[in-house]
Amino acid sequence: MMQSAASRTRLDGPLTSDALTHFDRTGWVPVPGFFSAAEISEISGWIDELLARPEVPGTHWVYHQPSLLDPGRRLVQRIENFCPHHAGLDTLARRSRLHRATEQVLDGPVFLFKEKINFKEPGGAGFELHQDQQAGWSRYAPLFVTVMVCIDPATIENGCLEMADGLPRLDRLIADEWRPVNDTEAAEFAMSPIPTQPGDVAFFDSFIPHASKANLSADQRRLLFFTYNNQIHGDRRDHYHTDKRASFPPDIERASGAEYKFRV
Ligand SMILES: O=C(O)CCC(=O)C(=O)O
Ligand SMILES: [Fe+2]
Asked: Mean per-residue pLDDT for 167-193?
């Protein structure tokens, strides 16, 4: 059972009690304008710094994909595991107003579990309908909360996030691990696109079904994601990254000829 709103101790922080109540009821909450234009411009500059760095084994993890618009072109799909290698992004994740907000949502001190930037450049693929917890996360903790930070305008045209709508908050998997949610499993709910502007954020738990479409527009759509768990479930970051590095390493660390399949 999820904690009811009534039993929750409210920590002070940037999120209002209305926002926390919305999260408790539905498993997610949008918070428009959490960051100023100046803050997003600084974060965007940090992302540019990461992108400009050489890909070297043992540093941040870069993954590529072929462009759907120009299959000969290789795009950066995402960068993960960068906080240990970037002081500004690490401070944002672990010692900031945003971090405090995640403590409010998770109702206590949190550990950063993982982080990534999904670039979704023009030609970038979408994400099939899934619950984040389906990606084997139950091995690490029973519940996570992710905060999405919008860096570029995310629109229907460039593949903004889409959330399950009209469901009471889920506290279980509705589909098997490691495969997208199918149409039968999705019959109980509708999907709503969530267009966002730079500076908007959204908090969502690891059970809410979500998806996004490919970007067939001319505009890139960068979204930054930090995922946390309550400290009562331990600091699982190293365990997760050791496992992922073995099963789905960054492109620069891949053995030639080996096949690695991205599943959810
Ligand atoms: O970037 C997106 O559109 C969604 C990404 C997502 O849900 C994920 O990577 O788990
Ligand atoms: Fe996801």
From this structure: 95
Q: Is the CB of 150 under 6 A from ligand 1?
A: no
Characterize the bridge pairing of strands 145-150 and 201-205. Answer: antiparallel
Task: Tell me the best of 146, 192, 212, 220 to mutate to test the pocket of ligand 1, counting ligand atoms within 8 Å of each CB and taking the most.
Answer: 212
What's phi and psi for 21, nearest 5 deg? -65, -40
pTM for this model (two decimals): 0.96
Across 128-153, average pLDDT: 98
Tokens read off for 260: 């690695």
CB of 102 within 8 A of CB of 145? yes
Tell me which residue has its CA closest to atom 5 in ligand 1. 127
- Which ligand ends up closest to the CA of 124? 1
Pocket test for ligand 1, best of 75, 137, 155, 210 (most atoms within 8 A of CB): 210
How much of the chain exceeds pLDDT 70, in percent?
Answer: 96
Q: How far is CA 120 from the centre of its chain?
A: 13
Best CATH choice for the domain 22-252 from the list 1.20.1560.10, 3.10.450.50, 2.60.120.620, 3.40.50.2000: 2.60.120.620
How does residue 1 score in pLDDT terms, banded at 50, 70 and 90?
A: very low
Q: How far apart are CA 92 and CA 226, in angstroms?
A: 10
